[in-house]
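Sequence in, structure out. Go.
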Amino acid sequence: MRRFSFAISLLCICCAGCEQHREQELLQAKQNEAGRPIEWPELPTSGFLAGRVATEQDVSNGEAAFVAFGAVHSDRLAIDVPQYAFLTSDDGSRVPVFVVQAELVQGVNGDVETFGLRPIQGGDPIVGVAPNVTLLGTKNPGR
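Output:
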């Protein structure tokens, strides 16, 4: 099992609006590190949380991956949920995932874009933070 570490710190997101960078990410989304095509399924129609921050009940119901306990404040991120993404692991490999939750967690160390993720192959939810999460949008990147 891959290990992911998430440090809450101030973030600087480079190339967030760079169209050339986005096109490169979408091209890379069509295949894995071994050069094999990634079979991206359609976006889920349930099991995600959009438009608000998560509660413990949302996590229990499988609609969210985390609750921001101990945060000074948490707000929803203004992005489309669900959507396709990659999570970059500690070893540099990229895991194809669905974004099922997106919040801006404000803590004593600053603001952190925090994402609830589900691997496209199934499995337990994962919590990721920017810049380890590369958003790909709502259009199926395999098409």
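Check: The domain at 1-6+71-143 is CATH 2.30.30 (SH3 type barrels.). The CA atoms of residues 29 and 50 lie 24 Å apart.
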